[in-house]
Amino acid sequence: MQLKICAMPGNKCTCLLMIHQRLSRTMSTRITPSLLTQQGKYLIWKEKCTSSVICLQNKKSLMATLAEMDLTATKVDTGTNTKAVKKQEEPTNVQGLMSILEKVEGCSSITQIPGRTLVYEGDLVELDTETLSPLQRVRVFLLNDSLMVATWVANRRGPVRHKFQALYELDESFAVVNVRDVGSAKNAFKVLKFPDSHMYQCDSPKTKKLWWDKIEETKKAKLSKPMQMKEVSSGPASPFLEKPSSKSNPFQEAEDDESLQAEKTVDMLDVDWLKEIPDDLDVCIAQRDFDGAVDLIDKTKEYLEQCPRTPALMEYRLKFEPRLKQLSEILTQELRVSAGTKLQGGPRATRKAVHHLIRLGKSTQAAELFLKQRSVILRHSLQGLKFDHGAATPFIKRLCAIFFNNVNSTIRDFSNAFSKCSGCYSALAVWCVTEFEFFMELFNKETFTGDNTLPVMAACIEITFKHCTELKEQGVDLSYGFHSLISSELNGVLMRSKEKLMENNKRSAVEDMWKPMVFEEKIHLDKFLTEMADMGIASINAYVYDELNVSLTKATAQFSQSYLDYLDSVLKMYHRMNHSIIVKCLSELFKAQLLYIEASLKSEKYSKEHKFILKNAHFLLETVLTLAEHRFEEIVGQPCTKLAHLHRELHRLKGVAKHNTVAAYV
């Protein structure tokens, strides 16, 4: 008795009920589902499997008969039946490849190869070849000429759930190796494709055997196809075949051109040295002969550019591209510096790796990795500096020497390596700005501290600005960025220094009783005159009388020295961004001293000292202020109008003195 089984949706109980109904009609014995024993279930499922096997065998014999009939028909009329069969198979192949496009991202070029079909596909788990631990979930597609692997993309909606990872050609270098079950790594097999090896795990032994058989059969069919084509092409021509007339086919000329291009491409690719290029590249990469590998790639690219763009050329490029990608990754690794690792190689090794990447067309990536490596070297050198308390100027000198020397060498090496890659220079500009900001963090930290005086800060700023100016010769101007990064700190320092200086001058003025300076010895007077002359006040000798006396108060002399010192320090730090704050500090500092003079003229306590007070005021306004104006204009390039307006104060102070003298007599 043969039982025909229909596959219907539903659970196991539904299928059993259907089987029960058919058995009841045949055997006229009424059996309810509750009375089915385990043995009965087993017999039913056994009969089901038997009928399925018989059905498959019938289909297999039918397909063999159809193939034999098709082959016989081909011998009679090749131009008709072959095309009909191809037209019937083509929709199925296209549908299989289209399903890959809908599922996998980045595989459009793979599905465009004519004659390529999908044989089998399924989900596997990739294992680590050493630890046998699971790495990731993959989707594997077995094509009629290659094996494609796609990784699972999590958290993505839509049909595209996979991303293309690799494509392995089913050639003689491709092999599948069985892996014994070890621990949790069961039902696994290893795919070997020089120089790579990957291990994949199936969900059951049955699935593993299915994959194994499919791959072996497909590989055997693929390797035997060139031999069959060779036998067919070398066989005798059939006397029944006639060359179709070009007049009967208006598109014959276009088809002839395409066929000629295809034949030309096949002939150009059928060169011994070109066939050996993939293996030669593998050897060069394994031996780290990067010069030889890049030379082979350049030679191959130049040769392939002469070939017509045909599917055969595209197929060869698919063999060629993985080697190019592997070489690029190795050269990239040569330049990559990870945190916590020591720098290996030297400038020569770096230059060679950069040169190779540029030749491979990876100039942007090479520039990025080159500059990242230089950043690691530079920051490692800067962070190794130690600051000595109270020695800010020597520290800034060493800091500037290390930073600007590294920047100079980086710009020089970058210009030599990327001279023909003008689009990469923007990356160099960004790198210079980023590293300079890191440098300025160290500079501001050690310069603008409470322990450093204003002259020390001015010296540090002057040293750094000089290096920024010298860097302009390399085409990089950091001077504006330098002043913009110190502007806020500098403005605060200038205001605090001015207020501190005003307090000191006020204290000296309170202690001063408007008495001339008297020196006990000649040597002390000479020392004072020398100090004033060094500051630029050469006319100080005109104020000496009676050999050891000077017609200036001690407060006036101290203010002159402190004001000119403050002026010199401020002008060393001058930039147009802090012009207004500098002018404000200089004018307010001088006005504060003039206000003290005005208060003394109005005081009855010093009514008899008006002439001497006005003489000190004349010295400050006509000698010290004039000298300050000249120095300001010399550094800035333009006069300071606010300082020039202070000369009017002398006339006003004389009026105050005259008014108070008349009032005293009245």
Features of the shown structure:
666 residues; alpha+beta; 8-stranded mixed beta sheet; 3-stranded antiparallel beta sheet; 21 helices; 63% helix; 9% strand; elongated; disordered N terminus
Concise account of the structure shown:
The chain has 666 residues and is α+β, with helices and mostly antiparallel strands. It has 21 helices and eleven strands.
N-to-C span? 152 Å
Helix content: 55-70%
Q: What is the radius of gyration computed over CA atoms, rounded to a whole number of angstroms?
A: 47 Å
The shape is elongated
Number of helices: 21
Quote the beta fraction: 5-15%
- Average pLDDT for all residues: 78
Q: Strand sequence of the main sheet, in spatial order? A: 1-5-4-3-2-8-7-6
Largest sheet: 8 strands, mixed
Runs with pLDDT <50, length 5+? 1-17, 23-36, 69-91, 229-255
Total number of strands: 11
Helix and strand composition category: alpha+beta
Structure description:
The chain is an alpha+beta fold and 666 residues long. The chain is 63% helix and 9% strand. It has helices at 12-27, 38-76, 78-103, 205-234, 252-269, 272-275, 277-286, 290-304, 311-335, 347-359, 363-383, 392-417, 425-447, 454-470, 479-511, 522-534, 554-572, 579-602, 610-636, 641-644, 648-665; strands spanning 104-105, 118-127, 134-143, 146-152, 162-169, 174-179, 188-193, 196-201, 517-518, 544-545, 549-550. The strands form 2 sheets. An 8-stranded mixed beta sheet has the order 1-5-4-3-2-8-7-6, with helices on both faces. A 3-stranded antiparallel beta sheet has the order 9-11-10, with no helix packed on it. A hairpin with a 3-residue loop joins strand 10 (544-545) and strand 11. The chain is elongated, with a radius of gyration of 47 Å.
